[in-house]
Amino acid sequence: MTEPNYKELQENLVEKAEEFKQKACEVEQQVSQNLNELMTVTAEKLDKAAEKMHNTAEFFRNNNVSKIKEDVSTIVRKNPGKSLIAGLAAGLLIGKILFK
Fold first, then answer.
1. In sequence order, what are the residues at sequence separation of 6 or more whose Cβ sits closer than 8 angstroms to the Cβ of residue 71?
2. Contact indicator for 75, 83 with CB cutoff of 8 Å
3. For labeling, which of 3, 15, 33, 84 is most exposed (least CB within 10 Å)?
């Protein structure tokens, strides 16, 4: 019966630990890169949303209620079918939110 070669086992364990360490570093780097890309995309989308909200707020600041009512009436006259569908969708959405 042969005696276990402890030196060889130790070297093998050290080699495996180094391989594991290298793989962990690669995974960490990939995760970091993916997070950076995700954060960049999220920041861009948030910027666009903030810009749209700003534009909407500016519209309401610069227009009075009668002007808005006039604009909506014009849109409804030009697109009655789409306006009806949009109104129904908005009603369903509001109903779902209020009566949850």
1. 63
2. yes
3. 3
The predicted pLDDT at position 56 comes to: 87
Cα(100)–Cα(93) distance, integer angstroms: 11
Domain locations along the chain: 1-62, 64-100
Q: What's the per-residue H, E or C state across 33-55?
A: HHHHHHHHHHHHHHHHHHHHHHH
What is residue 3's three-state secondary structure?
A: coil
pLDDT by residue, tens only, the chain of 100 residues: 566 688 888 989 999 999 999 999 999 999 999 999 999 999 999 999 999 999 988 888 887 878 878 888 999 999 999 999 999 999 998 888 888 7
78 by Cβ neighbours in 10 Å (0-12 / 13-18 / 19+) ranks as exposed
Amino acid (one-letter) located at 45: K
- CB 83 within 8 Å of CB 76: yes
